[in-house]
Amino acid sequence: MTARTPLRPLPRVLDARARGENPDVIERENIRKRHEEMKDRARARAEGRLLVLGAFFLCVFVVIGLRMGALATSEAQEPLASAPGASIAMQRADIVDREGRILATNLETYSVYAQPPLMVDPVAAAEGLVRVFPDLDKERLIKDFTGKRKFLWIKKRISPEQKQAVHDIGDPGLLFGPREMRLYPNGQLAAHILGGAGFGREGVNAAEVIGVAGVEKQFDDYLRDPANGNKPLTLSLDLTVQAAMEQVLFGGMKIMNAKGASAVLMNAHTGEVVAAASLPTFDPNDRPRPPTSGFDPSDSPLFNRYVQGVYELGSVFKIFTAAQAVDLGLVNSDTIIDTSGPMKIGRYPIGEFQGKNYGKLSVADIIVKSSNRGTGRLALQIGAERQQEFLRSLGMFEPTPFEIVEAKGGEPLKPRKWGELSTVTISYGHGLSTSPMHLAAGYAAIANGGHYVSPTILRRNGPQYGPRVMSENAARQAQAMLRKVVTDGTASFAEVPGYDVAGKTGTADKPKPRGGYYDDKVIATFASLFPAYDPKYVLVVTLDEPSILAYGEKRRTAGWTAVPVAAELIGRVAPLLGLRPRLEPEADAAITLTSN
Fold first, then answer.
1. Could you mention a single GO BP entry for this protein (predicted)?
2. Which of 24, 83, 515, 531 is deepest in the core (most CB within 10 A)?
């Protein structure tokens, strides 16, 4: 801080008096100088403030100019919200099948809510609402209407008839709000694919519809985008095939006394899932709540068996072992393998179903007879490392890429230590747990000549081949082996006149939710491809805990349970898929010419 000069400095006053001058002149001169200094400081402060203010206005003009330039060079867009509440009233795109038939759409409806301060007769209003909605609690309504509450929801979705009935109550405190709800016009059909939708953000004038499961949740961003309002999401499903599948599968589940069932029908060249069903099912228009207790998730109808049901699927895996052995050049379908016992891996014996001993069999007959020892010995020739690489290439180690949110929960279960014993047991479908959708993708590689195809719920145009996982020769020999299983082996009930079916049965003990296996419960699976002379489709049918009485015995194996259901299903859907039956020409009648 600068020291101030005194107005009457003593040395100058004494000097002025000594010279006879007036000392007041010195004071006036110092006052004048001090005022000039004060003016200079005030002017400097004012100039600094003006400089700062000028810089501020310059920045504002620059920002406004840049914004105007950006607006001038960008495309004009229509505002998405122009009224209170409109920001959450988004039009959700439709979902259609491959032929454009509606699977999910929107329905304009109303909600009803109450503002008790506006009510004229709260008790009469409560009584009228209970007559319209019997599930409401009259005493609770009266308590809410006569208490301190200023707002409460009555029903968030009502029908036009219910709206009119509430309107007829005539109380000004009962009000309506517009709503847009998700409607599934086919009811339970394809429920596990579609999943369902619910409300997100809500207001009295609008409600946001969001996906909660299935493709509704997987493609929620696409379906909610206003730009896609007139662009429905097209699925690979065929509604008529889906309906036939669910009808046949439900009948088969009841006849076979199964707890549940699933089926996957997949195009072997495009990966399109034309139909997929899981039973028991539900209605997405009234989606049930997830279970809050119990250890077995498959008890809930929400459980999607063909992607979330991860099981040891049994002998259906044997064809992969045979195909890989052929692909590696270790064997061909006619190579003889000794399947005689005993066979032990460490201290664990490897036996056959019902203690059979098949002796020496060709590789094709190993598949036909479903020999555990035969595939085990092939697996030992292949080795653990090459077996793992092959199964990984078939997608058996990761959740299936099928585009519904539940598929991410179908994580395959692999052994922690993949030794010689695991190599043998996995060769015949034990020790590695996968879903039916994984199995369908694996059989599609055999059906299409050796390429992996990724299962998809979206419609595709033309083949969608992925990397080659086996040679065409190996795939062709595997197809022939699977065909022989139907003509000469455990899947004889799969023969469908006019449609050559090839496939493999698998019966595996069902695991307990807390570990271990049931003694009398199985998962029965039949994995097939058709028509065998030119495979186009793969069908996997799985029954959970089937059991029937046939020829005086209780039967649980896939040959008696899953195979007949698959045969009925193929006979029903093959014509719907545009496949013409191939009928063998009848032999000429034998005529003997005689003379008189």
1. cell wall organization
2. 531
